[in-house]
Amino acid sequence: xxxxxxxxxxxxxxxxxxxxxxxxxxxxxxxxxxxxxxxxxxxxxxxxxxxxxxxxxxxxxxxxxxxxxxxxxxxxxxxxxxxxxxxxxxxxxxxxxxxxxxxxxxxxxxxxxxxxxxxxxxxxxxxxxxxxxxxxxxxxxxxxxxxxxxxxxxxxxxxxxxxxxxxxxxxxxxxxxxxxxxxxxxxxxxxxxxxxxxxxxxxxxxxxxxxxxxxxxxxxxxxxxxxxxxxxxxxxxxxxxxxxxxxxxxxxxxxxxxxxxxxxxxxxxxxxxxxxxxxxxxxxxxxxxxxxxxxxxxxxxxxxxxxxxxxxxxxxxxxxxxxxxxxxxxxxxxxxxxxxxxxxxxxxxxxxxxxxxxxxxxxxxxxxxxxxxxxxxxxxxxxxxxxxxxxxxxxxxxxxxxxxxxxxxxxxxxxxxxxxxxxxxxxxxxxxxxxxxxxxxxxxxxxxxxxxxxxxxxxxxxxxxxxxxxxxxxxxxxxxxxxxxxx
Length: 487
Hints:
Layout: H1 2-15, E1 24-33, H2 49-67, E2 88-93, H3 96-109, E3 119-120, E4 126-127, H4 130-133, E5 140-142, H5 164-172, H6 177-185, H7 187-191, H8 194-197, H9 211-224, H10 236-254, H11 264-282, E6 289-294, H12 296-305, E7 324-331, E8 347-354, E9 364-365, E10 375-377, H13 378-385, H14 393-400, H15 406-413, H16 439-444, H17 471-477
Helix pairs in contact: 2-3, 9-10, 11-12, 14-15
Pfam families: His_Phos_2
Family: Belongs to the histidine acid phosphatase family.
Keywords: Membrane, Signal, Transmembrane, Transmembrane helix
């Protein structure tokens, strides 16, 4: 009798109208690191075949999540097979590694169309595009007076940012007691590695000042080289130390809680994210798929500003090749392509991150801004982001203390224009104005530092305390940490 009642109740529940609408993804903004590349210290940096495959696999994952006709979370109105270039906004700095990563990623999102992309001509013949119907989705190149054409070849990426106060702030790390203590404590460690690295780094360069580029050289070698000089020195413990010191070095150059301008890369990225998502809402998902390729320091700066280290200290480490973070605009209200569209009050933002290619590990949702929930109302998200976002050229110039170049023209042309406000009006409410293009887009892909040649060698009275991996946080989320912190 009990089983019959259970069956009846089950049937009734199937017939009853649903009380909650299914979630709809209105649009996304993806910030993506490039794939595997050759080492910075050798110059002429290029994307490798492995790197191209990493970002291609990531693009394939996001196709399966958002784009294809059988996707798990289809974006409202997005064409699934033949790309509509008006719906897709892809950008990268004018740099070969980042540009080629973007092109490889796009081939995963919109692979060759085959016969689906063929055209019948007036004479009755059919023509298919080359390379199996290769789809040519444009990549917008970010170029301005403040960018370097070979940003990924530079050992000091933020040197091209042109943000005066950020450069001063980052250089302050090199005269801090924390830096001096670490520099001296690691002197023997780096000198002991000379048999491995002396083809590139001499005795005077084998030190903590070059922590990232030394790690980068060794890391690339362990991936690609069948033989490495004095490889017996590269024990697992040594490799862990190399990564640990590189993470410490780069985190301190990209973010400082007491001096936020150091995180200018994350500030400008936040402005771009807000602008793109706001445009998605005001345009009712006319261009819902936004992707930008940039440098790891923008991840670090944004993580600091968004209080991600409160979740795990892993968020203070350099992200792996092909890592990506995603901002999803979602709604549970009734919505249809070309029909009804939700109000901003019915829209939320979900943040996801994956350390490494999304083709290998699925992105996980994480809370932002020190909160508990992984899904925030749009108005709350805008309010929190506007606490640190730099949304236009005038705001960037003011924050950086710059008055020449693009900032000179920006100052002379200002005059109460709504575009100079980081929280300007929107015809949908709770929105922001679109940022001025140029310097802002360029900065998103850069780290916050110029290298300084003079280093202070005095030993300070502080001792470096190594960070430990917050295993509980990553285990609970089910995702990999940002970078393996060393215990």
